[in-house]
Design a protein that fits this description.
disordered C terminus, 66% helix, iron, 11 helices
Length: 369
């Protein structure tokens, strides 16, 4: 019964953006729905970071509900008892609400993608001009099912770092895929004859960014943000004592090494130092790449934004160390990484499509009405 209640909550949340798209007085409803879903997925990724950073991932220690109910209101007795038994533990009413709000919005995005899938297949069956294959939203629907499974394992496997990191990366894969679909549904800028030569460089930028995000996720899920307490050195040394073997042993419990012992400080330093050091490579490459693309009118705006977001990322990353990991700054750092991913994906799309015959897509569609 509570599964049905959870579904209704997700549907009610999704009805707000669906209603906004429906009442818009134009024919671009499907494109607006995709962009709105992309924006909400970005919000969900940031709220997922907030959930992790507030240690709320086990605020409801079961899945998909909270102590077998659809709301912390209903489960208040069990939550109060768990908090009384362990006041400093992972369960409290505040943490339970943070975790359940994260799940509610994830379900709402699932509803929005189901709506996209239904609209796309209806357009295919009725031969309406939607300008996108229905297999795109169908693949996104499959991806969000896999993402939901990793969300469940995040809870049932007690925040095991590799599971949590994979959950984060799948969320970013969903975000990037939605951004690509949204860009595909949007009229392209004027054709740039020379931009296509940057395709390989754009792909390298995307790969480097994804690796850096994965390293950042590994830092966060292992709570290694404060393993180095100074900058630019790490604990007073350029190359401090580090244990890469245990730090990057993937299959292990939270706070433990591969042998089941408590993870050492040297292992946490290895995790932090690797993320920090690789950041210099990624920043240098992305700044060089963005500055090179500023010569193209169709690429100048996202390229400028990449430089701006990188500066913000550097400042928030440094603040996490100097200011001892303040929550708003840590959430902003997570969000900045997601925004960078969006910008690099958009650049990859525009460069990949920068050739004759694919300069502009129709600006209107009637399949979504």
């Amino acid at each position: 019964m509570f599964i049905l209640e959870l579904g209704l909550i997700g549907l009610c949340i999704a009805l707000l953006p669906l209603s906004w798209v429906w009442v818009k007085a134009d024919d671009d409803k499907f494109r607006k729905l995709v962009w709105l879903t992309t924006f909400m997925t970005l919000d969900l990724v940031m709220f997922g970071g907030f959930t992790r950073l507030t240690d709320s991932g086990l605020g409801c220690p079961d899945w998909p509900g909270c102590y077998g109910t659809s709301s912390p209101f209903i489960a208040h007795v069990q939550i109060a008892a768990a908090h009384l038994a362990m006041p400093s533990g992972p369960v409290s009413m505040t943490k339970a609400w943070i975790e359940m709000i994260h799940r509610y919005f994830a379900m709402a995005i699932g509803v929005l993608i189901i709506a996209q899938t239904a609209i796309a297949w209806r357009a295919r069956i009725k031969r309406l001009p939607l300008h996108v294959s229905p297999w795109w939203p169908t693949a996104l629907l499959g991806l969000i099912v896999v993402q939901g499974a990793f969300g469940a394992w995040t809870v049932t496997m007690k925040l095991q770092p590799i599971i949590v990191t994979t959950h984060l990366l799948l969320g970013l894969l969903l975000l990037g895929s939605l951004a690509w679909l949204a860009a595909r549904m949007t009229p392209l800028p004027a054709y740039e004859p020379d931009a296509a030569r940057w395709r390989v460089a754009a792909l390298v930028a995307l790969v480097l960014l994804v690796v850096q995000i994965a390293l950042g996720g590994w830092v966060s899920t292992n709570y290694a943000v404060l393993a180095c307490t100074d900058f630019p050195t790490c604990n007073g040394a350029w190359i401090p004592p580090m244990d890469f073997h245990h730090g990057f042993h993937l299959w292990r419990a939270l706070g433990m090494d591969g042998n089941g012992d408590v993870i050492t400080q040297d292992a946490l330093v290895a995790i932090h130092w690797t993320h920090r050091t690789f950041a210099f490579i990624v920043v240098a490459y992305l700044v060089w790449f963005a500055l090179k693309l500023r010569r193209y009118a169709s690429l100048r705006r996202p390229a400028n934004w990449i430089v701006i977001v990188i500066v913000i990322q550097f400042l928030t990353g440094l603040s996490n160390i100097v200011l001892q990991w303040p929550l708003p700054v840590a959430v902003a750092h997570n969000g900045g990484a997601a925004i960078l991913l969006l910008l690099v994906v958009v650049l990859n799309f525009r460069i990949a499509c920068s050739r004759p015959g694919r300069a502009v897509l129709p600006a209107r569609d009637t399949a979504a009405v």
